Protein backbone atom coordinates (compact mmCIF):
# COMPACT_ATOMS: atom_id res chain seq x y z
CA UNK A 1 0.00 0.00 0.00
CA UNK A 2 1.23 3.49 -0.85
CA UNK A 3 2.57 5.36 2.17
CA UNK A 4 0.39 8.36 2.93
CA UNK A 5 1.55 11.30 5.01
CA UNK A 6 -1.01 13.53 6.72
CA UNK A 7 -0.22 17.24 6.74
CA UNK A 8 -1.76 19.22 9.60
CA UNK A 9 -2.13 22.96 9.01
CA UNK A 10 -2.43 23.93 12.64
CA UNK A 11 -2.01 26.68 15.18
CA UNK A 12 -5.65 27.72 14.96
CA UNK A 13 -5.51 27.35 17.95
CA UNK A 14 -2.48 25.47 19.23
CA UNK A 15 -4.38 23.43 21.84
CA UNK A 16 -6.86 22.18 19.23
CA UNK A 17 -3.96 21.17 16.97
CA UNK A 18 -2.33 19.12 19.71
CA UNK A 19 -5.69 17.56 20.54
CA UNK A 20 -6.26 16.63 16.89
CA UNK A 21 -2.91 14.87 16.52
CA UNK A 22 -3.40 13.07 19.83
CA UNK A 23 -6.81 11.86 18.66
CA UNK A 24 -5.40 10.59 15.35
CA UNK A 25 -2.93 8.43 17.30
CA UNK A 26 -5.59 7.25 19.77
CA UNK A 27 -8.23 6.50 17.14
CA UNK A 28 -5.94 4.65 14.71
CA UNK A 29 -6.05 0.86 14.92
CA UNK A 30 -2.37 -0.01 15.19
CA UNK A 31 -0.36 -2.77 16.81
CA UNK A 32 2.99 -1.01 16.64
CA UNK A 33 4.57 2.42 16.12
CA UNK A 34 5.11 1.58 12.45
CA UNK A 35 1.39 1.04 11.85
CA UNK A 36 0.47 4.61 12.82
CA UNK A 37 -0.03 7.45 10.35
CA UNK A 38 3.02 9.60 9.49
CA UNK A 39 2.13 13.23 10.18
CA UNK A 40 3.80 16.55 9.50
CA UNK A 41 2.31 19.06 11.92
CA UNK A 42 2.81 22.76 11.25
CA UNK A 43 1.59 24.46 14.43
CA UNK A 44 1.72 27.99 13.03
CA UNK A 45 0.64 30.30 15.85
CA UNK A 46 1.43 33.40 13.75
CA UNK A 47 -1.62 33.01 11.51
CA UNK A 48 -3.79 36.14 12.07
CA UNK A 49 -7.11 35.75 13.86
CA UNK A 50 -9.74 34.31 11.53
CA UNK A 51 -12.82 35.58 13.30
CA UNK A 52 -11.52 39.15 13.63
CA UNK A 53 -10.85 39.32 9.89
CA UNK A 54 -14.17 37.79 8.86
CA UNK A 55 -16.08 40.21 11.11
CA UNK A 56 -14.16 43.21 9.75
CA UNK A 57 -12.44 43.88 13.07
CA UNK A 58 -9.01 43.38 11.50
CA UNK A 59 -7.63 44.02 8.04
CA UNK A 60 -4.92 41.38 8.46
CA UNK A 61 -6.03 38.41 6.35
CA UNK A 62 -5.03 34.91 7.49
CA UNK A 63 -5.16 33.66 3.89
CA UNK A 64 -1.58 34.43 2.71
CA UNK A 65 -0.05 32.66 5.71
CA UNK A 66 -2.39 29.68 5.37
CA UNK A 67 -1.58 29.34 1.66
CA UNK A 68 2.13 29.54 2.49
CA UNK A 69 1.71 26.81 5.10
CA UNK A 70 -0.30 24.58 2.76
CA UNK A 71 2.41 24.87 0.11
CA UNK A 72 5.04 24.02 2.73
CA UNK A 73 3.17 20.86 3.73
CA UNK A 74 2.81 19.83 0.09
CA UNK A 75 6.51 20.44 -0.60
CA UNK A 76 7.35 18.42 2.52
CA UNK A 77 5.79 15.32 1.00
CA UNK A 78 2.30 15.29 2.49
CA UNK A 79 -0.34 13.28 0.65
CA UNK A 80 -3.23 15.37 1.96
CA UNK A 81 -3.91 18.27 4.31
CA UNK A 82 -6.29 18.81 7.20
CA UNK A 83 -7.07 22.10 8.91
CA UNK A 84 -8.37 21.44 12.45
CA UNK A 85 -10.28 24.72 12.63
CA UNK A 86 -13.85 25.28 11.42
CA UNK A 87 -13.58 29.07 11.07
CA UNK A 88 -10.51 28.75 8.84
CA UNK A 89 -12.62 26.88 6.27
CA UNK A 90 -14.02 30.25 5.21
CA UNK A 91 -10.77 30.36 3.18
CA UNK A 92 -10.95 26.72 2.03
CA UNK A 93 -11.54 27.33 -1.68
CA UNK A 94 -8.64 29.75 -2.03
CA UNK A 95 -6.23 27.49 -0.15
CA UNK A 96 -7.30 24.48 -2.21
CA UNK A 97 -6.55 26.36 -5.44
CA UNK A 98 -2.93 26.78 -4.41
CA UNK A 99 -2.01 23.14 -3.81
CA UNK A 100 -2.36 19.98 -5.88
CA UNK A 101 -2.99 17.60 -2.95
CA UNK A 102 -6.47 17.19 -1.41
CA UNK A 103 -7.60 19.12 1.65
CA UNK A 104 -10.16 17.26 3.76
CA UNK A 105 -13.04 19.65 4.44
CA UNK A 106 -14.13 19.42 8.08
CA UNK A 107 -17.47 21.15 7.42
CA UNK A 108 -18.52 19.09 4.40
CA UNK A 109 -17.56 15.85 6.17
CA UNK A 110 -19.43 16.86 9.33
CA UNK A 111 -22.67 17.66 7.52
CA UNK A 112 -22.48 14.42 5.53
CA UNK A 113 -21.91 12.46 8.72
CA UNK A 114 -24.97 14.06 10.33
CA UNK A 115 -27.10 13.01 7.35
CA UNK A 116 -25.80 9.44 7.49
CA UNK A 117 -26.29 9.09 11.23
CA UNK A 118 -29.77 10.64 11.52
CA UNK A 119 -32.44 9.38 9.06
CA UNK A 120 -34.97 12.10 8.34
CA UNK A 121 -32.64 14.84 9.50
CA UNK A 122 -34.13 18.29 8.93
CA UNK A 123 -32.29 20.83 11.07
CA UNK A 124 -28.71 21.06 12.32
CA UNK A 125 -28.01 23.22 15.34
CA UNK A 126 -24.58 24.86 15.09
CA UNK A 127 -22.36 25.85 17.99
CA UNK A 128 -19.45 27.82 16.57
CA UNK A 129 -17.55 31.09 16.71
CA UNK A 130 -19.27 34.23 15.52
CA UNK A 131 -16.85 34.24 12.61
CA UNK A 132 -17.87 30.75 11.47
CA UNK A 133 -21.56 31.59 11.77
CA UNK A 134 -21.40 34.93 9.95
CA UNK A 135 -19.09 33.61 7.25
CA UNK A 136 -21.85 31.24 6.12
CA UNK A 137 -19.35 28.37 5.96
CA UNK A 138 -21.80 25.84 7.43
CA UNK A 139 -24.86 27.26 5.67
CA UNK A 140 -23.14 26.67 2.35
CA UNK A 141 -23.17 22.93 3.05
CA UNK A 142 -26.52 22.64 4.82
CA UNK A 143 -28.03 24.39 1.78
CA UNK A 144 -26.13 22.00 -0.48
CA UNK A 145 -27.80 19.01 1.21
CA UNK A 146 -31.21 20.63 1.69
CA UNK A 147 -31.03 21.06 5.48
CA UNK A 148 -31.99 23.84 7.84
CA UNK A 149 -29.32 25.50 9.99
CA UNK A 150 -30.12 26.81 13.46
CA UNK A 151 -27.86 28.97 15.63
CA UNK A 152 -28.12 30.18 19.24
CA UNK A 153 -29.99 33.39 19.97
CA UNK A 154 -28.02 36.55 20.76
CA UNK A 155 -27.78 35.90 24.49
CA UNK A 156 -26.68 32.28 24.08
CA UNK A 157 -24.18 33.27 21.39
CA UNK A 158 -22.54 35.70 23.83
CA UNK A 159 -22.39 32.95 26.44
CA UNK A 160 -20.85 30.58 23.90
CA UNK A 161 -18.18 33.12 22.91
CA UNK A 162 -17.35 33.58 26.59
CA UNK A 163 -16.91 29.82 26.96
CA UNK A 164 -14.71 29.57 23.85
CA UNK A 165 -12.48 32.60 24.35
CA UNK A 166 -12.43 33.28 28.09
CA UNK A 167 -12.55 29.70 29.30
CA UNK A 168 -11.26 27.09 26.81
CA UNK A 169 -8.74 29.26 24.94
CA UNK A 170 -7.60 30.66 28.28
CA UNK A 171 -6.85 27.13 29.51
CA UNK A 172 -9.71 27.09 32.01
CA UNK A 173 -12.40 24.46 32.57
CA UNK A 174 -15.61 25.27 30.71
CA UNK A 175 -18.82 26.00 32.62
CA UNK A 176 -20.62 22.82 31.61
CA UNK A 177 -23.96 23.93 33.05
CA UNK A 178 -23.89 27.10 30.97
CA UNK A 179 -22.89 25.09 27.90
CA UNK A 180 -25.61 22.46 28.46
CA UNK A 181 -28.21 25.22 28.66
CA UNK A 182 -27.19 26.49 25.22
CA UNK A 183 -27.51 22.97 23.79
CA UNK A 184 -30.95 22.48 25.38
CA UNK A 185 -32.23 25.78 23.99
CA UNK A 186 -31.20 24.84 20.45
CA UNK A 187 -32.97 21.49 20.75
CA UNK A 188 -36.12 23.24 21.95
CA UNK A 189 -35.98 25.43 18.86
CA UNK A 190 -36.11 22.29 16.69
CA UNK A 191 -32.51 21.23 16.09
CA UNK A 192 -32.33 17.47 15.44
CA UNK A 193 -28.55 17.32 15.84
CA UNK A 194 -26.14 19.69 17.56
CA UNK A 195 -22.78 20.15 15.85
CA UNK A 196 -19.73 21.25 17.80
CA UNK A 197 -18.45 23.45 14.99
CA UNK A 198 -15.48 24.88 16.83
CA UNK A 199 -12.41 22.85 17.70
CA UNK A 200 -12.24 24.54 21.12
CA UNK A 201 -15.64 22.98 21.83
CA UNK A 202 -14.06 19.63 21.04
CA UNK A 203 -11.89 20.22 24.10
CA UNK A 204 -15.11 20.37 26.15
CA UNK A 205 -16.20 17.11 24.54
CA UNK A 206 -12.93 15.52 25.62
CA UNK A 207 -13.30 16.73 29.19
CA UNK A 208 -16.98 15.90 29.65
CA UNK A 209 -17.66 13.11 27.11
CA UNK A 210 -20.51 14.98 25.43
CA UNK A 211 -20.86 12.76 22.36
CA UNK A 212 -20.85 9.63 24.49
CA UNK A 213 -23.62 10.95 26.74
CA UNK A 214 -25.75 12.47 23.99
CA UNK A 215 -25.94 10.79 20.57
CA UNK A 216 -27.48 13.94 19.11
CA UNK A 217 -24.26 15.90 19.67
CA UNK A 218 -21.68 15.52 16.90
CA UNK A 219 -18.10 16.72 17.22
CA UNK A 220 -16.60 18.08 14.00
CA UNK A 221 -13.09 17.35 15.29
CA UNK A 222 -13.86 13.68 15.93
CA UNK A 223 -15.38 13.39 12.47
CA UNK A 224 -12.31 15.00 10.88
CA UNK A 225 -10.06 12.59 12.77
CA UNK A 226 -12.03 9.55 11.55
CA UNK A 227 -12.04 10.75 7.95
CA UNK A 228 -8.31 11.48 8.06
CA UNK A 229 -7.54 7.98 9.31
CA UNK A 230 -9.70 6.41 6.61
CA UNK A 231 -8.23 8.58 3.84
CA UNK A 232 -4.75 7.52 4.93
CA UNK A 233 -5.75 3.89 4.40
CA UNK A 234 -5.88 2.96 8.08
CA UNK A 235 -8.65 1.53 10.22
CA UNK A 236 -10.41 3.31 13.06
CA UNK A 237 -10.04 1.91 16.55
CA UNK A 238 -13.72 1.23 17.29
CA UNK A 239 -13.11 1.21 21.05
CA UNK A 240 -12.10 4.86 20.88
CA UNK A 241 -14.87 5.88 18.50
CA UNK A 242 -17.82 7.67 20.03
CA UNK A 243 -19.34 8.57 16.65
CA UNK A 244 -19.63 4.99 15.31
CA UNK A 245 -18.02 5.84 12.00
Using the CA coordinates, give the radius of gyration: 17 Å
In whole angstroms, how far apart are the ends?
22 Å
Largest sheet descriptor: 4 strands, parallel
Class from secondary-structure proportions: alpha/beta
Low-confidence stretches: 241-245
The SSE order reads: EHEHHEHEHEHHEHHEHHEH
Q: Going across the major beta sheet, what is the strand order?
A: 2-1-3-4
What proportion strand? Answer: 5-15%
Number of helices: 12
Fraction of residues in H or I helices = 40-55%
Mean pLDDT, to the nearest integer, reads 93
Shape: globular
Number of separate strands: 8
In short:
The chain has twelve helices and eight strands. By secondary structure, the chain is α/β, with parallel strands linked by helices.
Descriptive overview:
- This protein starts with 5 loop residues before the first strand and ends in a 14-residue tail after the last helix.
- Mean pLDDT is about 95; it is low at about 240-245.
- It has a four-stranded parallel sheet, sandwiched between helices. Strands 6-5-7-8 form a four-stranded parallel sheet, with helices on both faces.
- It is an alpha/beta fold.
- It contains twelve helices and eight strands.
- About 50% of the residues lie in helices and about 10% in strands.
- The longest helix has 15 residues, at about 155-170.
- α5 crosses α12 (about 220-230).
List the helices and strands and how they pair.
Blueprint: E1 6-10, H1 14-27, E2 39-43, H2 50-54, H3 63-75, E3 80-82, H4 92-97, E4 103-104, H5 106-117, E5 123-127, H6 130-135, H7 137-144, E6 148-150, H8 154-168, H9 176-188, E7 193-196, H10 199-208, H11 210-213, E8 217-219, H12 220-231
Parallel strand pairs: 1-2, 1-3, 3-4, 5-6, 5-7, 7-8
Helix pairs in contact: 1-12, 5-12
Amino acid sequence: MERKVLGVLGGLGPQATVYFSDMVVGYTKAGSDQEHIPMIILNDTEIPDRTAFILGESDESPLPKMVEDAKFLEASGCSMIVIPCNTAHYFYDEIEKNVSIPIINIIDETVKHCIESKPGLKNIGLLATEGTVKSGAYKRYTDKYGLGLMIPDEEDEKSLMNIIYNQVKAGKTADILEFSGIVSNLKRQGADIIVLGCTELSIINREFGLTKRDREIKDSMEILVMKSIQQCGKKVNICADSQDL
